[in-house]
Amino acid sequence: MALAATAETWGIAGSTFLSAYLLIATTVGAGGICARRALAEPGATKPIDDLTDRPHDVAYLAGGGELAVWSALCAMHLRGTLRAADGTVRAVGRLEPAADPLEEAIHDTAATPVGRRRLVFHHSVRPALAALEERLVAGGFLLSDDRRRRIRRVGFWMLGVAALGLLRVLADIAEVRPVGLLVTALLIVTAVAVVQLTLSPRRTRRGNRALAALRDRHRALAPDGEPDWQSRGPAGAALGIGLFGTGALAASAPGLAREIAPQVRATRTSGLAVSGGGDGGGGGGGNRG
């Protein structure tokens, strides 16, 4: 009876199991990080035109559908094909024959005044935004939904480690043994598993590098550079918004910004400068890469 009372749980001493468990968790965690990084860097990709030739693509890459719509609205306003007031937009005039598909969709949608915030959800605009996303995925700049699911599934590795720790904790509790350190390790492992299962990058590592390179190359379009939109033209203005957020517009042309939306505020950061703004199109807003 005395021998049975002093036998270790599973025949493994608590300190030995804890050391082995930490080693397993560290190894699996490191392997998971490597696997997620590899999945976030697609191999062969289809060729894609220079991103600067498609400023709305750049905006979608940086901030998703919301920022892409802002990019298009700015270009259309400067071309004189759209007017904005009190948070609504209205199409005016005619587009050029070779107009961008996103601008065409917005122009058609705004044939009657429409709220700027509704554009990203409109049934005529969503296909154009989806085409932007498909092009960026094909070019290796954004991750497909399937690739993102595969990245999240890597979290099941750590979840398995958490399950092992939970079984040991329950076994030790049944044997009335101390479990404080093991519970702490289990909580950390579980937290890592939950994060990996719920979060995945939107941009690929190639997309992050491309965006950083474009921002460096076109630093003159940043808000603190106070770019002249008249000399840059609609495409340059749209690219500035895509790279540096709506602050690139608000800092240099606050009157125009107020016409598009009163919520826009001047900023010298590279983020989306719209209060309450977000990734309405489900694209690569923030650091998702």
TrEMBL record:
Q: Where is this region: Disordered?
A: 267-289
Q: Where is the composition biased (Gly residues)?
A: 274-289
* InterPro entries per the UniProt record, alphabetical: Ser/Gly_Cys_C_dom (IPR026467)
Listed transmembrane segments: 12-35, 154-173, 179-199
Q: Which UniProt keywords apply?
A: Membrane, Transmembrane, Transmembrane helix
Matching NCBIfam families, A to Z?
near_uncomplex (TIGR04222)
The protein's name: TIGR04222 domain-containing membrane protein
Q: Which organism is it from?
A: Pseudonocardia adelaidensis
